[in-house]
Amino acid sequence: MATKAYLINLDRSQDRLKRIRGEAERAGVELVRVPAVDGRTVPAAERALLDEPGFLRDHGKRPLPGEYGCYASHLKALEMFLQSSDEFGLILEDDVVLSPDLSQTLSALETVGGWDVLKLVHHRRAMHLTERSLPNGLRVGRAAFGPSGSAAAYLVRREIVPRLLRSLTPMRLPYDVALEREWALGVRLRHVHPDPIGLAGTRSLTRDGRKYADQNLPLWQRLTTLRFRTIDAARRLLGAMRPSR
Q1: Are 39 and 33 in contact (CB under 8 A)?
Q2: Residue 54 CA: distances (Å) to CA of 7, 58, 79, 124, 167
Q3: Under the phi-then-psi rule, with left for phi > 0, alpha for psi from -120 to 50, and beta for the rest, what region is 128?
Q4: In terms of C-beta density within 10 A (0-12 exposed, 13-18 middle, 19 or more buried), how is residue 219 classed?
C-alpha cells in the first residue's frame, strides 16, 4: 500500500500548498493536508502544551510562537495518521521538495527493518554510522553527533505513534530537537543519507523573521542547558556506538 504523506500547512501558505501538490502528484504520493496550528494566534496563556520553565531550563531560549505552532502541528499530524489503518506514515512540512521517484524510495525504505522513526531531511551533517545500504545508494544508520536539525520530513511506524505522543508531551524543546532524542522517547530513530527529500530554501515561518540568537537567555541562566546538552551528547554517542539489534 502506498504511504500517505501528512502535509503540515498553514492556511496562509496557499502558494506552498499548490507547489507541493503538483510535486506529490508527479511522485505518486497521496497528500493529506494537516491544517497547521498558527502559533501567532495562540495567546501565551493558552499554550497548554508548553512547559515553559522546562523549555527555558533545557533549551536556554525563550520559546517563539512559531515553535509552539510547529510542535502542536506535528502532534496533530501524528494523531491524524493514527486515525488511519496504514502501517507507515510520512510527515512533511510544506517547505520540502519532492522528487518524482519518491514513491519508489519510500517503498524501499519501508522494507528496511530496525527503525521506528526515519529522518529524511537534515540541516547538519552529523557523523553518520551506516547500518544498512540500499541498492539505490541510500544509507540508513545512526547519527553520532547532533541534533542534526529539521523535522521537515520523516517516516514513522504506526505502532510507535501512541508512545511518541505520550513522550513528546509536554513541550520542553523545539520539535526537531525533541524528535531526535530516541533514548528519551523510547523509540528507534534512524537517519537516511543522502537526504531523499530536499528543502525549498524558503523563509522559515517558525521564526517569523526573528533572529534566533535574540531568544537566548543570559549566559548564567543557561548553565542548566549546558548540563542538559552535555548529557544528551553523551547518550547520543553511546547509543550510536551500540551494536544494532
Answers
A1: no
A2: 29, 6, 24, 25, 14
A3: beta
A4: exposed
Q: Give every CB contact of residue 131 below 8 A, 6+ residues apart in sequence.
A: 114, 140, 141, 142, 190, 244
CA distance readout (Å), 141 to 3, 122, 149, 192: 21, 13, 16, 7
Q: What is the pLDDT of residues 85-94, one digit of tens each?
A: 999 999 999 9
Q: Is the dihedral of CA 163, 110, 177, 184 positive or negative?
A: positive
Rounded to an integer, what distance in angstroms lies between the CA atom of residue 123 and that of residue 174? 14
Rounded (5°) CA angle 9-154-3: 85
Nearest Cα to Cα of residue 110 among 29, 173, 55, 51: 29
Its pTM stands at 0.94
CATH of the domain at 199: 3.90.550.10
What pLDDT digit, counting tens, does each position of 48-91 carry?
999 999 999 999 999 999 999 999 999 999 999 999 999 999 99
The total of structural domains in the chain comes to 1
Residues of the chain with pLDDT under 70: 1-2, 203-209, 244-245
Measured from the Cβ of residue 216, the count of other Cβ atoms closer than 10 Å reads: 15
